[in-house]
Amino acid sequence: MDLAQQLQQLHQVKELAMTNEPDKVLPKVLETALSLYKQNAARPRELSRFCAGLYLDVAAHERIPASEKPFVAAQHLHDMVGMCQGPWVDHVTYRDVLLGVGSYYEGLFDLVAKTSNEALWKDLVLLKEQVLHQWRTCFPLDAGDPLQDHARSLGVKMAAAKLLARMVVVHSRGSGVSISTIPDNHPVIKNKAALQAESRKLLDVLITYLIDEPMMVAPLFSAVLNCLAFIMKRRPVATARILGGLLRFNIDNKYQQDNESALRYRLAKRCVERCYKNFVNFGMKAQLIRNSGDLAPYHHKLGKIAQTLHMIAEETKSKGILNFDPALTEKKMSPAEREKYLAACNSRMSKSPTPADPPIPVPAPVPAGLPPGAQLGMVTPQQPLAAPAVQNNAPVAESSDLPILIKLQNYTMSKSSVSNFFNNSPVAFDNNYASIYSLMNSKNSEIDLSGLSQETLVKLCTEAIYRADTNKVIAGLSIVAQRYTDLMDKAMKHSTGDADDNDRKKKKPKLEESQAISADTEDGSTNVEDEEESKEFTLGPPAPMSREDKLRHLQLIVSNICDVSANEEAAGLTTPLDQLPVLNRARLLQWDNRTSWVVLLTRLSSRGLQADESMSNLVRQHIYNYFLQDFSNRVAVVIEWLSEEWFSESVRSDAHPVYNEWSLRVLDGLVPFLDNSHRKMFIRLVSELPHLNRDHISRFTSLCLDPLRAPLGFQALKFLIMFRPPVKPLVRDVLEEMKQRDESVREQCDGILTKFY
User: What confidence category does residue 231 fall into, taking pLDDT thresholds of 50, 70 and 90?
Assistant: First the structure.
């Protein structure tokens, strides 16, 4: 029997076994397939893929008892690991094996703990070492350009990330299957401390990939973030370590692939930003990133990052993902950076055949109660920093700075309980810059930081400003401004006094000089200074704006007006309108942030910009997009807007081209998203629109012909017949047309026609 016939029979048996007694038949099919694979010296790729896929299917099948899966996995693990060795390794096979072992790993580890199966443990260790050895490569694919290889073999890398995350959870202490259940004298798993230390290194492998990877690899970035969320949920003790590394993950510094378009790079970056934001929101919602204790600084910083990413996403959504400038979006690695990265890769590979990822530093928490000056010295990482290959995400303190930093830390710790630490006086004690900016008393300024390098000083200052409360920063800057103003006033008075003395000393020479000048003037000569002073200065007219600049500024103005709805500031005028004279009443005399901006935009589109159609349409498009974003709660906005458009056109002429165009566009954009739950909203819309014609009524056809939404469409037509008599003949024509078009609605159409006509 040839290979094709064997595979055909195996697939047939597998399909039957998936539905008929899978707990008994599937393991036997897997055993048979593996025996055929081992008997074939050619190691056919198709057969290895079938075995690995079936190994994964057994792990995921719901009808196979969870208690039996570890035994099936242990029975065939040696053969699966063997498929991942040698020159014939297949990409799909390797991926499915890693996914299968990742699914079985907790059960396999528990089986080793209970049965002391040394051979099983050796296979797990061998597979782990292979994953770590090939982590920075595109194995099992052939290596090529190191920068192009980053986006290859992604299925294997994502499966490897999942397996490493499982190992981190199991090899650390915690609930469930973990090293906590292993006795100290276990004959196979002998060194629990080393295993737990290795789990931290495995975690660093995942975190360091986010930091050091220079290219934008969106699928793998998202997979690693999801794995870190899984680890953080199962092992909360690792949260600080994960968040410390996440703060160094800079999405903006990731480069675009050479063969990647600007649009694809923009989409990839957007996906990673969304995954980053979801990670932070998940941690905060699950109370894993708490705003208390050691995690409070991370909660504050990550919350700001997530909020910024949300604002970027909303802005991108409003503008459209396709509306961008490719020249500004592209971010490709320069030749110099490419050479530097390749040299770093060659150096790393020549030093060690197994790439070792550096540990991630966990910043020490800031002790509560320290003054702001004391917080500057709290830079004591528990582990040494490791510089990335290409990016300089975080400055590393030089060795010469370390003694000064230690001295500064000890000094700030000693000042934690000192009273009168601050100097809040608005008057500087000296006339130099140090006295202006120093907010400490002179006796508390005993540390000389001039010996620190510029990078370390910048890091200390920025970190202190970032951690400080905004109100305290504003208060400190106010004190600095008062001191500066006081010194400038003193300097001006001093210079004025000196000028008076000089004037008195030079009074006589000046007098003689003025007499000579006046004599020259009488002779007819021109005083140039007087002429210059007598000239009137006029400011030149501004440069005319281009058409594109006008549209861009109008877009910004409209966006800012819409943002007023989210402002909670109270209105400035509270006088009731009925107490004002009739001629003094105005539509926006009493401002309300929730509704007044709608009046402003509708008047702007229908009257203020009626001379420029493109600008008016820009405002209308913005209102239209705003309505569709949440049409259930914003129907009043679109009714007021369309009513204003209809009234404005009615005043000028009998035709309503603008109203008809945009009201039909509203219905075209709204109808596909309606369901029966929107009945009240839709009936309110069609009942309050100022004018309906045949084109408007015909838009109901798709609702009536949809079996699931037909009640909504026919209810709206009945409402129009009963409460808007002018459109009654139009509704009849639409019903007759639908009856001829589709037999399924004939009975409903006839019922309405018989009852109302």
Answer: very high
8 Å CB contact between 173 and 180: yes
CATH 1.25.40 range(s) for the chain read 548-569+587-756
Quick one: tokens of 364? 């020490």
CATH of 65-351, one of 1.25.10.10, 3.40.50.300, 3.40.50.720, 3.40.640.10: 1.25.10.10
What pLDDT band is residue 578 in, cutting at 50, 70 and 90?
low
3 state DSSP class of 218: helix
With contact defined as beta carbons under 8 Å apart, do 100 and 52 qualify?
A: yes
Determine the topology of domain 548-569+587-756 in CATH: 1.25.40
**In this structure, how many other beta carbons lie within 10 angstroms of the beta carbon of residue 622?**
19
With 90 as the cut, is the pLDDT of residue 349 above it?
no
Q: Could you tell me which residues come within 8 angstroms of residue 271 by beta carbon, excluding any fewer than 6 positions away?
A: 218, 222
- Look at 386 and 516; give whichever has higher pLDDT: 516
As to burial, measured by CB atoms within 10 angstroms (0-12 exposed, 13-18 middle, 19+ buried), residue 604 is buried
CB 557 within 8 A of CB 549: no
Instruction: For residue 727, count other CB atoms closer than 10 A to its CB.
Output: 20
| Distances, alpha carbon 19 to alpha carbons 25, 65, 157, 204, 686, in Å | 10, 15, 32, 42, 52
From 4-8, 73-77, 217-221, 556-560, the region with the lowest mean pLDDT: 556-560
pTM of the model: 0.50
| Mean pLDDT to the nearest integer, 155-176 | 93
Give start-end residues of each CATH 1.25.10.10 domain in the chain.
65-351
On whether the CB atoms of residues 263 and 223 are closer than 8 A, the answer is no
* Tokens representing residue 722 in the block: 């009963």
pLDDT in tens, 197-213: 899 999 999 999 999 88
User: What amino acid occupies position 657?
Assistant: P
Tokens linked to 444:
């508390």
SS (HEC) of 595-645: CHHHHHHHHHHHHHCCCCHHHHHHHHHHHHHHHHHCCCCCHHHHHHHHHHH
Question: 648 with 606: CB under 8 angstroms?
Answer: yes
In Å, what is the CA distance from 208 to each residue of 147, 153, 200, 283, 346?
Answer: 17, 19, 12, 20, 19
Out of 212-216, 233-237, 538-542, 608-612, least confident range:
538-542
Which tokens in the block code for residue 333? Answer: 């690695």
User: With 0-12 CB in 10 A as exposed, 13-18 as middle and 19+ as buried, what is 59?
Assistant: buried
Nearest-angstrom CA–CA distance, 441 and 431: 16
- Which tokens go with 110? 């528990």
What tokens were used for 198?
A: 């290795």
Say if residues 553 and 581 touch (Cβ distance below 8 Å). no
pLDDT digits (tens, 9 = 90+) for 713-742: 888 898 888 888 888 889 999 888 888 888
Q: From residue 160, how far is each of 99, 123, 131, 152 by CA, in Å? A: 8, 16, 7, 14
pLDDT of residue 487: 81
| pLDDT, tens only, 280-313 | 999 999 889 988 888 888 988 999 999 888 888 8
The DSSP symbol for 360 reads P
- The answer on pLDDT for 92 being more than 50 is yes
Tokens 């900016």 belong to residue:
437
